[in-house]
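Mods, move this if it's the wrong board.
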Amino acid sequence: MNVTYTVNRSKKRRKTISLQIGNNSEIKVCAPYYTPVAEITRFIEEKQNWISQTIQKRSQELLLNKEKDYVTGEIFYYLGQSYPLEAHFEPMENTGVVFWNNQFFLNCPANQDMRKYSFILWYKRKAKEYVRARVEHFSRALNLQPRGTRITSANQRWGSCSEDNSLAFSFRLMMAPPEVIDYVIIHELMHISQKNHSSKFWDLVVEILPDYKIHRRWLRDNHHKFIL
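Not the wrong board. Structure tokens:
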């Protein structure tokens, strides 16, 4: 792998060499002012595998982070699984999204905003059914009663609990696996008892979900799949 990079030499930097990879895969090396070129070259050679993997991962994330075109063949997520879309427009049929036989079907004019709106409506409808049922299940099991549950269009705030114990969840959670959805619900229900993220709060969460960190990490690593 031939690596092209720029070097920033600093008299303030005493010993260590470091590198940064920019949004356009540009590589910048920061080194002490008098570091020999051979030492910098050796450092880059040692980091080649990491550089290659990082650039490849970022390229994949940029592709996944792109907004949907809502055309046949695109992939959409539902309860943690990916499914293909078949898009068409039949004026005499009902418009909207149908999920059937492990595939999404979209009947809508070829307008990106209209097609996006159709998917949002579908996910919101599913969230109202699924999330509210799970909230009811866990609120009974944990003896924690929220004032109400609403579904939002939040991009990254998966759930919240207000001061008056009203819960809110993003419809985008319907793209996550069921166990991740349960984690977010339990997380917010625990805020009825603890209105913070203190050690007492996490003790309550771990008592119910000992492996909650796995689900929290899934949200952090897969949030790009929630883009519509």
